[in-house]
Amino acid sequence: MAEIDLKKNILLSGSFRIVIIALTFCISWISARFLGVELKGQYSYVITLGGFFWMVLDLGIFHSYPYLARKFPQRLANLYGWTVFSTSLEIAVLLALGLGFRPFWNQLLGYEFSPLYLVLFVLYVSFTKALMQLKAFFIGLDRILNHSLAAVINSSLCLLLVSLGFLLVSGTTRLTYYLGITVFSLAAAITYLLASYGQAPRLGEVDLGFVRRAYGFGIRAFVSALLISLLVRADIVIVKQLLGYRQTGIYSIAAHMVDFLQIASNMVGGLLLAKLSDTASDIGKWLLMKKMLMLFAVFLALGNLAFVALGRPLLALFYGAGFVPSYWVYLWLIPASFGLSFGSLFQNYLNSKGFPIVSIIIAALALALNIGLNFLLIPGMGIQGAALATSVAYLFWFALIVAYEQRQSQGRLLLHLLPRRADWKELKQMLAATLATGWNRLRKR
After folding, report:
1. Burial, 363: exposed, middle or buried (Cβ in 10 Å; 0-12, 13-18, 19+)?
2. Fewer Cβ close by (within 10 Å): the C or N end of the chain?
3. Three-state DSSP class for 316?
């Protein structure tokens, strides 16, 4: 395979991400108005459950797809076929188990699923997993345009359909409608990627021996990613249990703002994993990580300053007075935005070294701290306590990864990771040159 041009990929993917960020904001705004505080809380809870289930079904293999595609290019058809066939089988099995034991699941999950809503929930879980695997597969192929267009299709359709629903759908059916359009948008993005690959999956090309080997890489990424997902979403579940759906709806908007800022780190993360997997030198990896951390420090600082200055009136304008308390919650989550983005970037650095088991231990410690602090702080501080707990846990997660790598490198990591004045000057010049190049291309078009 050709060498990956990380700068080009980030520029291409970043250009699309600007569009996706705008679409995501509009979806969040209209859906909050569409659902209201109570239904928004219910939807956030259900989607949080769905995120947990698809990660368990995936067993971390999607995290390993960019790595596997770069290391084993002759096995691409195997990865592609496994995604398609395993998803089809999974949907059939989950629908049978879900509908056949619906009262049991309702009681276990603490939510009253109707038959239709349960079907949509199963499709949401399976389609999300399949889309994540296919997008990671296309990153490994270094086909970033297709990867980015799939995300645009998903977001664009969701925005269009929720806007129509806002005008045409009323009452509690809005919750079912919104999950339905989420599923439809995921299906459209999956269909686009399958068509873009241009090859039909063949069951005979699925080598179960290699699949087991792939899960061997993936299982460590799975446990680590599952713990990180719980770290990111445990507060939503705990707030729901302790404070109810209304407070969950308010908290979910603030948490969504953190996710909103993390879109960029998620976008870079997969690209970074593929590039780091191609980089043999530790120093080369550290210098690349330094550039990424500096870039995101600037991005997050500007994003948070903008929200501090404009967040309160914008929340009132776009979401309504019922969601304005989210502003004060987000102020407690500002450190979390840095900890989550930096931790996510360094998690990909660890994964590029073969998915070491220490990433599981670090994530488990951060999760335990987050859960403990949530139960300690929420009774006295309410949802602000959940935000503080999350900020402390995310920063702790990032600090542990850096401390571990500093020890493993015998004290060399920070010598190459800490930015100097010349590094900031170089970053400024790079950003100016990148913006100039992008503007010139836009003018020519």
Report:
1. buried
2. C
3. helix
Residue with token string 């997969």: 270
Judged on CB neighbours under 10 Å (0-12, 13-18, 19+), 350 is: buried
Map out the domains of the chain as residue ranges. 6-436
For residue range 6-31, list pLDDT tens digits in order.
667 666 776 777 788 788 888 888 88
Output b/e per residue, 224-259; b: 16+ Cβ within 10 A.
bbbbbbbbbbbbbbbbbebbebebbbbbbbbbbbbe
3-state helix, strand, coil in the chain (%, to 5): 90, 0, 10
pLDDT digits (tens, 9 = 90+) for 215-228: 766 666 667 666 76
Whether the CB-CB separation of 169 and 189 falls below 8 Å is answered with: no
Token pair, residue 149, equals: 């267009």
Who's near 188: CB < 8 A, 6+ residues apart?
Answer: 153, 154, 157
Stronger pLDDT, 367 or 8, i.e. the higher one: 367
| C-alpha Rg value of the chain to the nearest Å | 21
List Cβ neighbours of 319 (8 Å cut-off, separation of 6 or more): 29, 32, 33, 253, 326
Q: Name the 3-class secondary structure at 320.
A: coil
Cβ neighbours for 187, distance < 8 A, ≥ 6 positions apart:
123, 127
Is the distance from CB of 247 to CB of 384 less than 8 angstroms? no
| Both tokens assigned to 145 | 């345009």
5 C-beta neighbours (distance < 10 Å), count: 13
Measure the CA–CA gap between 436 and 243, rounded to whole angstroms. Answer: 49
